[in-house]
Amino acid sequence: DSLGIKQSYGAEERHGGKHVQWLTAGAGIQHEEMWDIEPDKKDKGKFLWTSSQELYQIWLNLPAEYKMSKPDAKLLETYDVNDSQQPPEGTTPVITSDGTITTVVCGEHDGIKAKVDCPTNTAIIRVQFAQKDQTTTWKHILPAAHETAILYIRQGAVQIDGQRIPPHHTVYLSS
């Protein structure tokens, strides 16, 4: 990009747990995402990029006082949380509990706070249900300051207030 930053990240083993890029555009940056086409060792050298990679970009509008801040990009690494310990800087806490895997990119879940510097009152949380054929309940208490929760269902389905939400649908929940 225009700052000379070149980063490689993803869910594959070769990225060493670095799975999130946190980019602050601030005063301006030219930036480009490119697909990672390096084969994984466990994939026996096959290029799987055409069907195995997904990229989600979530854009947050910076508050006025941060609009001209210095642009920056950093990689965040997974950090397995045990016994309510707080994660170190540069990590996304991963909480495994009751058949779910919860990754906190920013914000807080169940008393565990992400260590990324987010200038807005936002939580970005990825929830993965471990068992596809089993009913699992996941609970998150929204902070009083949050007015909306947005859910995107990637695979499977979830049930909210008796309504089934299928894959590839977005749900907006009000306070």
Could you explain how this protein is built, in words?
The protein is mainly beta. It has one helix and eleven strands. The strands form four sheets. The chain has a five-stranded mixed beta sheet, with no helix packed on it. A two-stranded antiparallel sheet has the order 5-6. The chain has a two-stranded antiparallel sheet with strand order 8-11. The longest helix has 4 residues, at 49-52. The chain is globular and about 50 Å long. The relative contact order is 0.13.
Rounded radius of gyration (Å): 18 Å
Measured distance between first and last alpha carbons: 39 Å
Q: What topology, given as strand order, has the largest sheet?
A: 1-2-3-4-7
Q: What coarse outline follows from CA principal-axis ratios?
A: globular
Instruction: Tell me the number of strands.
Output: 11
What order do the SSEs take from the amino end to the carboxyl end, as H and E?
EHEEEEEEEEEE
Q: Percent range for helical residues?
A: under 10%
Largest sheet: 5 strands, mixed
Structural class: mainly beta
Look at the structure and give the mean pLDDT: 82
Uncertain stretches of 5 or more adjacent residues? none
Number of helices in the DSSP assignment:
1
What is the beta-strand fraction?
25-35%
Fold topology:
Elements: E1 18-24, H1 49-52, E2 72-80, E3 91-97, E4 100-106, E5 108-109, E6 112-113, E7 124-129, E8 148-153, E9 158-160, E10 163-165, E11 169-174
Parallel strand pairs: 2-3
Antiparallel strand pairs: 1-2, 3-4, 4-7, 5-6, 8-11, 9-10
